[in-house]
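Q: What changes when zinc ion is included in the input?
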Amino acid sequence: MNIKPSLLAVACALALAACSDNSSSPTSAPAPSATTTPAEAPVTMTPAPAATAGSMTNAPAGSAMDTSKGTAVVTDCATEIEGSDAMQYNVSSIVVPSSCKDFKITLKHTGTMPVTAMGHDVVITKQSDMQAVDADGVAAGAASGYVKADDPRVIAHTSLIGGGETTSVSFPVSKIQSGGPYVFFCSFPGHAALMKGTISVQ
Ligand code: ZN
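A: The predicted holo structure follows.
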């Protein structure tokens, strides 16, 4: 009579020991959970990336136009810029003094290629209008100098010239004083991809 209960007690003690061993390993889990606290540290660091993201919002405005060629030299409310046989202007931005009433842009074609092969002009529009004005200019054709006639989106434009030629245009500064940003570009088919820049009033 006493043997069986004692065997049960041993079996029970073994079972408890086994159970306690099994239960003790889950209770050792808090150690791995403690290692999760370092994982939370990167979460608290998110404010830093957010700050850089905020500074990057300024980047598109500056990188919208390539300004690597520099700013045109302005003298007496006028500037002279150049277009080359390499399909390039020599400047990527024009800054018009706000003290000027009118502004004159002279374009000098420094190359030798004919207007039919390497024609250049200067067309001024809002940056948002540039693509459509350029497309309509190409559609208007060479006879129109690749500028659609009486296009209200065109603020000013020169004639289309070939190598060795010079052309110029004057326009009221008030036309680009607000509502920009504004750009200048060459409307000869395909040239605006490279021949473009910003024009602003300061
Ligand atoms: Zn051109």
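Observations recorded in class: Helices lie at 3-27, 30-34, 36-44, 47-56, 59-63, 115-118, 130-140.
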